[in-house]
Amino acid sequence: MDFNYTEEQEMIRQAARDYAQRELIKDVLERDETAAYPTKHIKNLSELGFMGIMVDPKYDGGGMDTISYTLAIEEISKIDSSVGVIISVNNSLVCWGVEEYGTEEHKEKYLRPMARGDKIGAFLLSEPEAGSDATSQRTTAIPDGDFYILNGTKNWITSGGTASIFLVIAQTHPELGHKGINVFILENDAPGVSIGKHEDKMGMRSSDTHSVMFTDVKVPKENRIGEDGFGFKFAMETLNGGRIGIAAQALGIAGGAFDRSVQYSRERKTFGTEIANHQAIAFKLSDMAVRIENSRLLVHKAAWLKDQGRNFSTASAMAKQYAADAAMWITTEAVQIHGGYGYVKEYHVERLMREAKLTQIYEGTSEIQKIIISRSILKD
Ligand code: CAA
Q1: What is the pLDDT of residues 234-255, one digit of tens each?
Q2: Is 177 in the pocket of ligand 1 (CB under 6 A)?
Q3: Nearest alpha carbon, ligand 1 atom 50
Q4: Half-sphere exposure of residue 212, counting CA atoms within 13 Å on the CB side?
Q5: pLDDT for position 380
Q6: Does the global pTM surpass 0.70?
Q7: Residue nearest to atom 40 of ligand 1 (CA)
Q8: What CA–CA distance (Å, rounded) separates 162 from 164?
Q9: In angstroms, what is the C-alpha Rg of the chain?
Q10: Residue 129: active-site member
Q11: Would the pLDDT of 338 be above 90?
Q12: Main-chain dihedrals φ then ψ at residue 293, nearest 5 degrees
């Protein structure tokens, strides 16, 4: 066992940290207020190679491991988790799925521009009535000659308004349940695709969340990924990796709130001393540090298992559930440590608390992670 990062892992962590602490910090509060998409930052981070960190260099990716990816997401999310989720979805829900299961044509045509960040990808699984209950897909994909015809609505789509490449999950054979579901690569300008309103979210406000509607959209048969009926398995396998990214994001949000709390506790004085000298505050810092350390160990273990080619579905569910719940607790305590200052925007911790909440909801709620974990315990 080796807890040291490799030179390459350290390098990517430092690059992400430098960019976040030098550039993202400048306008993160403004973007939280206006919910403006971080166009300039995504362009810069694309040039630095962050949109395809794990993709094989032969498709213009960074060729790095999953640990490097989690370090990058953690550092970016310490400052700005809206940017963190755009990078995470592009890398682990879209690029990974196409690279792992797509054809050579899919990789040349779609993976390469996404890995470079020239095009952004989105993952279209959730529906108005199929969030946690993801097998209940109502979007249909009916075969018609050389095409499938897509009809339906997808909800809560990260990068829904900016992505030009969609991975769409849809039901082809309802009588087969989840075994009748397929996944397709679709470009956003296909006739019949319309983008719904921009969601006005509580947190991660500058990530771009939309619904997407399909009316008789023709998708060529060669754009289906895998065998007929592979779509649900594809979605689950892809989400296993996505959840490592969201766990790393939660770790970053928690770390951001922790760093600010330590600094504030050293500076703020009450009753004649810095508040860090009060046990009530010092113990909070201690509890925060332990939960951050636990989160990090779970995130790195899941990432390591994935890099070893071993089963990581339970490990990623554990990492996501623990890190998200820890981030919610840590950010709430950070607001408490800051008192009245924590409740106003310029101290950042109320924003981090709003952002932490989403990590308990998307890519599978904390309750869904417990379903996955408990089923793996009880299956034998
Ligand atoms: N890894 C691999 N396979 C999995 C899996 C996992 N984590 N979870 C389920 N499966 C497989 C099962 O093995 C089963 O396959 P077989 O029939 O071949 O055995 C199949 O999927 C169906 O599973 P279940 O029978 O367990 O179905 P279920 O309906 O009881 O439960 C569920 C399924 C685990 C709850 C699933 O619906 C789920 O994960 N729901 C949450 C969906 C989710 O995470 N949505 C996030 C949306 S994407 C998003 O947020 C992106 C974004 O933009 C940020």
Answers
A1: 999 999 999 999 999 999 999 9
A2: no
A3: 363
A4: 34
A5: 73
A6: yes
A7: 132
A8: 6
A9: 21
A10: no
A11: yes
A12: -65, -45
